[in-house]
Amino acid sequence: MRNLWLRSCLRIAIALFIFLAATSTLSALGAAAGPWSAIVIDAHTRGPVEGAVIVATWSRRGRGHSIGFGGPDPVGVEEVVTDAHGQFTLPARTFANPPLFLPIEGPDLLIFKSAYGGWRFRDTPADLVKQGAVIELRPLTVTDERLKYVQGRMAEQDPRLGWLREGRGPESAYGLPYQRIRRYESAINGERVLLGLPRIGLGYPYLGEE
To answer: Is the peptide bond before 205 cis (omega within 30 degrees of 0)?
Structure first.
């Protein structure tokens, strides 16, 4: 009788475990987020910027820090280019949260366009999923500025202006799969060639000079 009771308890425990696991898996699936959209403009002329390369990434976050679980981090990468109206759209995505239900957040953006350096949201990043954000690119009119930016040597002149990627230049693509950022790499190398610099490889694994 006792063995029968133990077997019944074991079956109930197994059924409960399976139920909880299935429920956890379903709850870990995030609802479709996005799409995200923006128009990229010249910060001085206010005109649209065509051909700016956008790299969007989504990462697991724990207490504000990116976390990887034996795989590449970030967990999602998308590359798009602005059209003749300076617009781009990132399609909606659905992610499965990793163990411990750490959230997947994003998109974080990398933006590059020849003869520009640094960018900022005119209002707020939240506009990406609302009416569409406006992103301002800062034009670089002096060759020395373009050299400093593409080499990651441009210093922040006034933090209050809010230009992003300031001081690091455009090469902050470390750890991204190079197959997913080919246009970003090509745009940066096009600028480097124009400025008399050698080509470089971006992303992971490192491609090296082409």
So the answer is: yes
Helix (H, G, I), strand (E, B) or coil at 75: coil
For residue range 25-42, what is the model confidence (pLDDT) as tens digits?
A: 444 444 447 899 999 999
**H or E stretch at 17:** helix 2-28
Q: CA 191, 142, 38, 64 torsion: positive or negative?
A: positive
Omega prior to 35 cis, within 30 of 0:
yes
**Full-model pTM:** 0.76
CA dist 192 and 187 (Å) reads 9
For residue range 85-104, what is the model confidence (pLDDT) as tens digits? Answer: 999 999 988 876 655 567 77
User: CA dist 153 to 30, 150, 160, 166, 196, Å?
Assistant: 39, 8, 19, 9, 16
**β-bridge mates for residue 47, sequence order:** none
Architecture of domain 31-169: Sandwich (2.60)
Would you say 79 and 73 are in contact if contact means Cβ atoms under 8 Å apart? no
Q: What is residue 68's three-state secondary structure?
A: coil
